[in-house]
Specification:
Strand order of the largest sheet: 14-15-16-13-12-18-19
Bound molecules: adenosine-5'-diphosphate
Distance between the termini: 82 Å
Number of strands: 22
Number of helices: 16
Oligomer: single chain
Radius of gyration: 23 Å
Strand content: 15-25%
Helix content: 25-40%
Length: 494
C-alpha cells in the first residue's frame, strides 16, 4: 500500500472551483461535467460546462476591463503579473496537488515543477513591460514619424490538458503585460488547476482582466473563436482542431497563434557522450509525463557504432523509473490522461507489434497498489526496427512510446529526421562542433538543441515549422509580434 505523502485536496476546495471565473469571481454554471482522477478512476469534482452564453459573459467582462487595464503604465501591468507569480508560488502545494489529481502526472517529477515553471513565466513577462517599444522612422526631416505598439483587445486562449498551467501562462502572461484582457478556455480533462491559478491571479488583477471558462471544444471553445469581440486566438492542441480554429479565425480575419504538436527527432552521433545522451533521451521523451509532450523526442536515431549500448542503457534507465500513485513523492511516472488516450496509444503499440522486423521493449512495472485503478497506467515502450513509413514514426502518439533506429549514413539520417509534416523540436548529440553546427542548420524544426533536450523555457522563442503550427511563444518576440498591433503615427508641426 502506497503511503500518500500529501493528502488529496479537500472536496470543499474543489467545490469552490465548480464554476467559471468571470469578472473576478467564480460564478456557478447551469451545467457541469465530472472530472476524473485518472489514477483512481474516481470523480474528483464537477467542472462548469460552458456554453456560448457563458463565453459571451466572460468576453463582455474582459471587454469592460480591457480599456482600464491598457491605460495602466506597462510596467505597472508587468508588476501586477509578476506579483501573480509570487501568489502562485505561495499556493504551489495545493495547485500542484490539483494538477496531479486531474492529470495523473506525478507530483514530484511533473506537477510541482509545472507550477514553478508557470510562475517563472509570469515573472519573466512581468519584467518586460517596458519593452513594449515602438520605433522612430527616418521618413522626412520635417516630420516626426513613429510606431507604437497597442494591445489587440480581448485575447482568447484555448488550452490542452498535457501541461495546462505552463501553456496557460505562456499565452496569458504576454497578452496581459501587453495590455490585453483574456478569456481562457481550459481543457475539459484538466480544468481545476488552471482555474485555481486564475482565481489566485484574479485576487491581484482588476476584475475581468482574466476570465476562465471550462467546457467542451464544440460548444465552449468554438464559441470563443466565433465571438465577434475576441481579437485573437492563441491555441495549443491537436492539428485537426488547429485547422478548425484557423479556418474560423480566417472567416473573422483575426490573428492566431497555433502550437500543434510534433514528431521530434533526436540524432545521436557515434562520438556522443553516451550516458549523457541516454539521460537526455529519458528527459527528452518526457517519460515521467508518459510521453504526453509536443516536443517528445519520439524518433531516436542512434549511430550503429553505439546503437546496442544506447538501447541497453536506455532500457535500463527507463526501467529505473517508478510508476505509481501520482500523489506519492516516490513516484516518477503517473498515468496517461484518459481512456481515449490510452486506447489511442494501445492502437499504435498493436500496430508496432504487428510490424515485421520490429521489436518492442517494455520497461518497468505496473503499480500493485490496490487503491489505484490500473487502467490508465501505461508501461513505457521502446520500439526498434520500425520502418520509416510506419505510423509510429510519422504520427504523434502522445504516449510513452519511443522508436529507436540505427544509422550509418549522415545524409540519410538528416533526410529521415526532416521527412516529417511536423517541425517542432530536434536534438543532436555529439562532441564534434562542426557536425553539430551542420546538423542544427539543416534540421527543419523551430527548437533545435545540441547535447540537451530542455522543455520550453522563458526567453527562448518556441514555435514549430510546418504542421507544428504558427507563431512563437515564451519570448519577448512572442509578446511583441503576437499580442500587439503596430500603429504608425506621423506628426507635422501644424
Ligand atoms: P487534445 O488532444 O489535447 O485533447 P484537442 O485539440 O482535442 O487536443 O483539444 C485542445 C483544446 O481545444 C481543448 O481545450 C478543447 O476543448 C479545444 N477544442 C476542441 N475542439 C474545438 C473547436 N472546434 N473549437 C475550439 N476549441 C476546441
Amino acid at each position: 500500500m502506497t503511503i500518500l505523502a500529501e493528502k488529496p485536496a479537500p472536496l470543499s476546495a474543489l467545490a469552490a472551483l465548480e464554476g467559471h471565473l468571470i469578472d473576478g469571481a467564480i460564478v456557478p454554471a447551469a451545467a457541469s461535467f465530472p472530472v476524473l482522477n485518472p489514477a483512481t478512476g474516481k470523480v474528483i469534482g464537477q467542472a462548469a460546462r460552458g456554453n456560448a452564453g457563458d463565453v459571451a459573459a466572460a468576453v463582455a467582462a474582459a471587454r469592460r476591463a480591457q480599456t482600464g487595464w491598457a491605460a495602466l503604465a506597462a510596467r505597472e501591468r508587468g508588476r501586477l503579473v509578476a506579483a501573480c507569480a509570487t501568489r502562485l508560488l505561495e499556493e504551489k502545494k495545493s495547485v500542484a496537488r490539483l494538477l496531479a489529481m486531474e492529470t495523473g502526472k506525478a507530483i514530484r517529477t511533473e506537477s510541482r515543477p509545472e507550477v514553478v515553471t508557470a510562475a517563472d513565466i509570469l515573472s519573466f513577462y512581468g519584467g518586460l513591460g517596458s519593452e513594449l517599444k515602438g520605433e522612430t522612422l527616418p521618413f522626412r526631416p520635417d516630420l516626426l514619424s513613429v510606431t507604437t505598439r497597442e494591445p489587440l483587445g480581448v485575447v482568447g486562449a484555448i488550452l490542452p490538458w498535457n501541461v495546462p498551467l505552463v501553456l496557460m501562462m505562456l499565452k496569458i502572461a504576454p497578452a496581459l503585460v501587453a495590455g490585453n484582457s483574456v478569456v481562457v478556455k481550459s481543457a475539459e480533462e484538466a480544468p481545476f488547476a488552471t482555474l485555481e491559478a486564475g482565481r489566485l491571479m484574479a485576487e491581484l488583477l482588476p476584475p475581468g482582466v482574466i476570465n476562465i471558462v471550462s467546457g467542451f471544444g464544440e460548444d465552449c471553445g468554438a464559441a470563443l473563436v466565433a465571438h465577434p469581440h475576441v481579437a485573437k486566438i492563441t491555441f495549443t492542441g491537436s492539428q485537426p482542431v488547429g485547422e478548425i480554429i484557423y479556418g474560423a479565425a480566417a472567416a473573422r480575419i483575426i490573428p492566431v497563434t497555433l502550437e500543434l504538436g510534433g514528431k521530434s527527432p533526436m540524432i545521436v552521433m557515434a562520438d556522443a557522450d553516451l550516458d549523457h545522451a541516454i539521460a537526455g533521451a529519458v528527459a527528452g521523451m518526457r517519460f515521467t509525463r508518459q510521453g504526453q509532450s509536443c516536443t517528445a523526442a519520439s524518433r531516436i536515431y542512434v549511430h550503429a557504432d553505439v546503437y546496442d549500448r544506447f538501447v541497453a542503457g536506455l532500457e535500463q534507465a527507463v526501467r529505473g523509473l517508478k510508476m505509481g500513485d501520482p500523489l506519492d513523492e516516490a513516484t516518477d511516472i503517473g498515468t496517461v490522461i484518459s481512456p481515449e488516450q490510452k486506447e489511442r496509444i494501445d492502437a499504435y503499440i498493436a500496430m508496432g507489434l504487428q510490424t515485421p522486423g520490429a521489436r518492442a521493449i517494455e520497461c518497468g512495472m505496473l503499480p500493485d497498489d490496490p487503491s489505484l485503478d490500473p487502467a490508465l497506467f501505461a508501461l513505457p515502450i521502446l520500439f526498434t526496427g520500425l520502418p520509416e513509413d510506419s505510423p509510429l514514426m510519422r504520427e504523434e502518439i502522445f504516449g510513452p512510446v519511443a522508436a529507436i533506429t540505427s544509422w550509418t549514413d549522415y545524409e540519410a539520417v538528416i533526410a529521415a529526421a526532416n521527412d516529417s509534416d511536423f517541425g517542432l523540436a530536434a536534438s543532436i548529440w555529439t562532441n564534434d562542433l562542426s557536425a553539430a553546427l551542420d546538423a542544427t542548420r539543416r534540421i527543419n524544426a523551430g527548437y533545435v538543441q545540441v547535447n540537451q533536450n530542455l522543455t520550453i523555457q522563458p526567453n527562448l522563442s518556441y514555435g514549430g515549422f510546418g504542421k507544428s503550427g504558427l507563431g512563437k511563444e515564451a519570448s519577448l518576440e512572442a509578446m511583441l509580434e503576437h499580442f500587439t498591433r503596430k500603429k504608425t503615427i506621423v506628426f507635422a508641426a501644424a
